[in-house]
Amino acid sequence: QVQLVESGGGLVQAGGSLRLSCAASGRTFSRYAMGWFRQAPGKEREFVAAISRSGVSTYYADSVKGRFTISRDNAKNMVYLQMNSLKSEDTAVYYCAATDTLRVGLMSRTDEYIYWGQGTRVTVSS
Predict the structure, then answer these.
(1) N or C end of the chain: smaller count of CB under 10 Å?
(2) DSSP 58-105
(3) So what's the pLDDT on residue 6?
């Protein structure tokens, strides 16, 4: 069992930056690849970024590539999402999630993730 708690959301102007954090409980954190997803009002939840269990490999949605960076610290059971050059279309609730899949091609699928946090809201004003 892994419990995830996100933090770091808030209101930011377009072009600004935010850093989201996700704290994971449990001693098995390093067994899971981690992902960030987001859900805007009236839209389906979508993939943002994922990171492998070791942190060596990272994957991004095209919409955030070059602007967002996912990282993890297994010693601290933490996952981060650094968001730069924010746009109004980045406004959403952001969720941290854990998956035990080893298949890169599946890491963008919400149904591959076992554990989810409660979400943190990000609002980007234009």
Answers:
(1) N
(2) EEE-TTTTTTEEEEEETTTTEEEEEE-S--GGG-EEEEEEEE----GG
(3) 98
